Structure formats: structure tokens, C-alpha cells
């Protein structure tokens, strides 16, 4: 059987292509930018944080499944290829704990001035009602050419922007070609549901975002969720979302040391995904947990990729 005719080669790239087209369609044309507009109206606050990152590839390996059935060391590797969601796109996530009910994203244009990236107000993609924090996401499918690419989020309060509107940090993509992974060092079968997470320190990190979740989508959606990013934003059930400032490189649930956006108790003998993401002082994603392998299977073939998280199962 020709590997190129494998159904896995048809369906997964098609899903990635649809996402890429959607992102490209979100790009806005910017004209008549005031080069002197370098100080957006509003007030910077640590309760509005912007994380930015480039579209990095997912490595997908295709294997011919030889007997015995299922992935094992005797199977034949047919191909290994990078898969982008939308190559060349820059992404951003705003983590907001202010009174803002929406966000506008400003981008520095080629002449140095700021202009609106989109002609609409962003709505939250995730709300944590207990803590009143929210997440907003955007994608820039056609970066302006300003070096380094720079963005700032400005909160909209009661439908308006004022001198008191919250501003995020200026997020800058300084190292778009770097692709390091975080090494998770904690026990993945801990004897306690109040798990301790630990990882190797990332040079230059200002802190680490932690997300513990269960993925609720299908196999193809799970592959898309493996993209290097600080959070998985769709098809997930969150159990913990929080931030640990450097130089800490570990955190135990329910103990001091983290800013907790959301938390629910874990259960014994249940699998959870743990994603750790390092960010620097400019808001750039430096590294994250590529984590454990997952598989897309069909008759006689399978594809292997990294989950973007480690699998942790509290076990008696």
C-alpha cells in the first residue's frame, strides 16, 4: 500500500489547512498608520498579561504497523514531517484579571506606529468564574514587518476605551526560530492527588504557566492541540491553570507559590495532561513540554506525535 494513500495523510493535513485558511482570513489591512503613535492610551497593569509565540510545527511520524499489532519497536518508519497549523502566523494569548469585558489588539506597523490588528473587539475564549480571570486569543496571519514583531492588548471597559483602560505588557517575538522543549522531572504516577510538578529550569524565563486538563475532542483535534502554545484553549476540561514566577521550577497543588486562575480537585487512577510553558519578560513563549507520544491509527498504519503535555496519573 502506498503511504501517500493512507487516510491519515488525507484527513489530518486537511484539518490543518482549514485552520490555516481561517487564520489567514482574519488578517486586516492596515493603512494610514501614524508613525508617532507609540504610546497607546491606557494604563499598564500586571493583571493583564500577553504571551506571544510563532506558529511552530508539530512533527508527525508515519509508521507501517508490522506484526504484532500496535506501535512497537519493530514497526517501519515511513516518513517524518513537520506540520504547521498556519506557517508564518504569529499568535497571542491575553490573560486578563481586570474589569475589561473585551480586548483590542494593537500591532506595531512597519513605520513603528501602533495600529489595530483587528477591526473588532476580542471576546474571551475561556472564563474562570471563581477567580474572574479570562483568556483572549488572536492570530496575525500577515505580520507587519516591524522588527521585532510587537503587540499590546488594550482592554475595553463598558464598551469604551479610556485613559484608565488596562494595557498588557508589550509582547515581542524575539526568537521566532527557537523550538526548545521543557523536560518534566516529576513522578508521572504520583501517590497523591495533590500532585507535585517539577521541570528543568529554562534560561531567561520570567515564569511558567501550568495547565492541567483533560482533552475532550477527537483524535484529529488532539493533534491540533499539540501545537507549541501556552494553553490548549478548546475541547478541554481544565483542572488547574496558574502561574509560577521564576526561579521556581516546581509546584505542588494547593500550596503557596502560584497565582491560581482555576483549580479543581484531581481523582486517583485518572489520567490528566500537564502542560508547562516558560515565558520571558517580553511575554514571549520560550519553551513548553512536548511531552508524551500519542497515536493516530488506521488499518496497517499509524502516526505518532508529541502531545504537548505529559500524562500524569495519580496512582495508589
Mean of residue pLDDT values:
90
Through-space gap between termini:
45 Å
Overall number of strands: 22
What share of residues is helical?
Answer: under 10%
Number of domains: 2
Helices, strands, pairings?
Blueprint: H1 7-25, E1 43-44, E2 48-54, E3 58-64, E4 76-83, E5 90-96, E6 102-108, E7 114-116, E8 126-128, E9 133-140, E10 150-156, E11 166-167, E12 171-172, E13 196-198, E14 207-215, H2 219-225, E15 236-245, E16 250-252, E17 259-263, E18 272-279, E19 285-288, E20 293-298, E21 301-306, E22 310-312
Parallel strand pairs: 1-11
Antiparallel strand pairs: 2-5, 3-4, 3-21, 5-9, 6-7, 6-10, 8-9, 10-12, 13-16, 14-15, 14-18, 15-17, 18-19, 18-22, 20-21
Would you give an account of this structure?
Helix content is 8%, strand content 38%. The chain has 316 residues and is mostly beta strands. It has 2 domains: 3-172, no CATH class; 196-312, no CATH class. Strand 20 (293-298) and strand 21 (301-306) form a beta hairpin. It starts with 6 loop residues before the first helix and ends with a strand.
Sum this structure up briefly.
The protein is mainly β and 316 residues long. 8% of the residues lie in helices and 38% in strands. Strand 8 (126-128) and strand 9 form a beta hairpin.
Key terms:
six-stranded antiparallel sheet; mainly beta; globular; 2 helices; 316 residues; disordered N terminus
Amino acid at each position: 500500500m502506498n503511504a501517500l494513500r493512507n487516510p491519515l495523510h488525507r484527513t489530518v493535513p486537511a484539518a490543518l489547512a482549514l485552520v490555516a485558511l481561517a487564520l489567514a482570513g482574519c488578517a486586516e489591512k492596515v493603512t494610514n498608520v501614524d508613525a508617532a503613535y507609540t504610546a497607546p492610551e491606557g494604563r499598564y497593569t500586571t493583571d493583564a498579561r500577553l504571551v506571544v509565540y510563532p506558529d511552530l510545527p508539530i512533527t508527525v511520524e508515519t509508521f507501517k504497523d508490522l506484526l504484532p499489532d500496535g506501535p512497537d519497536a519493530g514497526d517501519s518508519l515511513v516518513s517524518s514531517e513537520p506540520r504547521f497549523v498556519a506557517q508564518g502566523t504569529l499568535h497571542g494569548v491575553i490573560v486578563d484579571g481586570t474589569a475589561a469585558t473585551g480586548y483590542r489588539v494593537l500591532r506595531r506597523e512597519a513605520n513603528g506606529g501602533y495600529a489595530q490588528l483587528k477591526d473588532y473587539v476580542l471576546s474571551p475564549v475561556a472564563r474562570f468564574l471563581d477567580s474572574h480571570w479570562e483568556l483572549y486569543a488572536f492570530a496575525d496571519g500577515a505580520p507587519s514587518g516591524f522588527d521585532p514583531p510587537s503587540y499590546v492588548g488594550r482592554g475595553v471597559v463598558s464598551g469604551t476605551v479610556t485613559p484608565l483602560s488596562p494595557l498588557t505588557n508589550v509582547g515581542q517575538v524575539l526568537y521566532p526560530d527557537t523550538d526548545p522543549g521543557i523536560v518534566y522531572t516529576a513522578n508521572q504516577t504520583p501517590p497523591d492527588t495533590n500532585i507535585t510538578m517539577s521541570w528543568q529550569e529554562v534560561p531567561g524565563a520570567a515564569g511558567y504557566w501550568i495547565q492541567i486538563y483533560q482533552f475532550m475532542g477527537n483524535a484529529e483535534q488532539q493533534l491540533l492541540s499539540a501545537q507549541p502554545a501556552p494553553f490548549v484553549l478548546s475541547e478541554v476540561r481544565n483542572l488547574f491553570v496558574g502561574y509560577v514566577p521564576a526561579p521556581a521550577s516546581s509546584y505542588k497543588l494547593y500550596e503557596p507559590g502560584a497565582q491560581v486562575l482555576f483549580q479543581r480537585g484531581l481523582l486517583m487512577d485518572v489520567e490528566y495532561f500537564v502542560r508547562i510553558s516558560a515565558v520571558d519578560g517580553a511575554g514571549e513563549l520560550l519553551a513548553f513540554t512536548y511531552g508524551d507520544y500519542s497515536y493516530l491509527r488506521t488499518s496497517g498504519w499509524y502516526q505518532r506525535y508529541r502531545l504537548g503535555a505529559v500524562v500524569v496519573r495519580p496512582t495508589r
